[in-house]
Amino acid sequence: MGIILIFETSTEICSVALMVNGQVIDLIESDEGQSHARLTTVFAEQLLKKNDIKPGELSAVAVSKGPGSYTGLRIGVSTAKGICYAGNIPLIAIGTLEAMAKHVSLNRLQLGIPETKPTLFCPMIDARRMEVFSMLLDKEGQIIRPITAQVIDESFLADELSNSQVAFFGNGSAKCRKVLESPNAVFINHISASAQHMSELVWQAYTKKQFEDVAYFEPFYLKDFIATVSRKNMPG
Q1: pLDDT tens digits, residue range 196-233?
Q2: Rounded to an integer, what distance in angstroms lies between the CA atom of residue 168 and that of residue 236?
Q3: What percent of the chain shows pLDDT beyond 70?
Q4: Residue 149 CB: number of other CB atoms within 10 A?
Q5: Are 170 and 192 in contact (CB under 8 A)?
Q6: Which of 100, 18, 92, 108 minimizes the C-alpha distance to 67?
Q7: Which of 138, 184, 134 lies closest to 159 in space, CA to CA?
Q8: For residues 95 and 66, is the Cβ–Cβ distance under 8 A?
Q9: In which element (H, E) is residue 55 found?
Q10: How confident is the model at residue 178 (pLDDT cuts 50, 70, 90)?
Q11: Cα separation of 70 and 173, whole Å?
Q12: In what order do the strands lie in the sheet with 14-20?
């Protein structure tokens, strides 16, 4: 039996899921914002206790590897690695944007994405101001454009939008909606980074034994962390 605990902490949502044999059987998540340090371990403990599973019974632990919030990613990865170290459990890492795209691709009809045109999938994570972390994939999950941190303007994906329908989603897509007016741009609301959306790729990795080196694995930050100081705390 494959029992996998899944962590997704790359955005403002703190999400933990429990998967058994490829199916998510339980999920706890919160959109409170910067609460990952307080909630991630608590949610994991609650899920295991509720489903009468001991940490040592886990077949693997999966975590979203980014890109996303520097602090959120560090908390999720640190928690996942701690469980893996303690129980000698394999670690699985899944790209945040790839997981979102897989979820939307598998559920395109329910999400109202027309099938009348070829469709590309563009997951987006807010990276402050007019910048987003994004990538472009086809319906098979093949990467058309790799992950970038990019400022959105009228020229964004102009070539792709001239030839294909592009589905935009994620908490950064609102920025794109304001500047892209192509009839081929489809915007999907309420798609967030969630542990349950990682399940398909997590199970694929588990069955193929695609595990990370627990000692050396690091999140994919994409951009260096920049500490900021509140203006009210700056010296006069």
Answers
A1: 999 999 999 999 999 999 999 999 987 654 333 333 33
A2: 44
A3: 94
A4: 14
A5: yes
A6: 100
A7: 184
A8: yes
A9: none
A10: confident
A11: 20
A12: 23-30, 14-20, 3-8, 60-66, 91-95
- Reduced to 3 states (helix: H, G, I; strand: E, B; else coil), residue 5 is strand
State residue 226's pLDDT score. Answer: 39
Is this structure's pTM higher than 0.85? yes
Provide the pLDDT for residue 177: 86
35 close to 28: Cβ distance less than 8 angstroms: no
Q: How far apart are CA 234 and CA 168, in angstroms?
A: 39
Output the CA torsion 154→157→160→163 (10° steps).
-10
Domains annotated on the chain, with CATH: 3-96+193-233 (3.30.420.40), 97-187 (3.30.420)
What integer is the mean pLDDT of 28-55? 94
Residues 6+ apart with CB under 8 A from 134: 97, 122, 123, 124, 125, 147, 148, 150, 172
> Residue 173 carries which side chain, given as an amino acid letter?
S
Mean pLDDT of 159-180: 91
* Tokens encoding 84: 């893996």
Looking at residue 117, its amino acid is K
φ, ψ (nearest 5 deg) of residue 134: -150, 165
Cα–Cα–Cα angle for 64, 67, 71, rounded to 5 degrees: 80
What is the per-residue DSSP string for 157-221? THHHHHHSEEEEESTTHHHHHHH---TTEEE--S----GGGGHHHHHHHHHTT--B-TTT-----
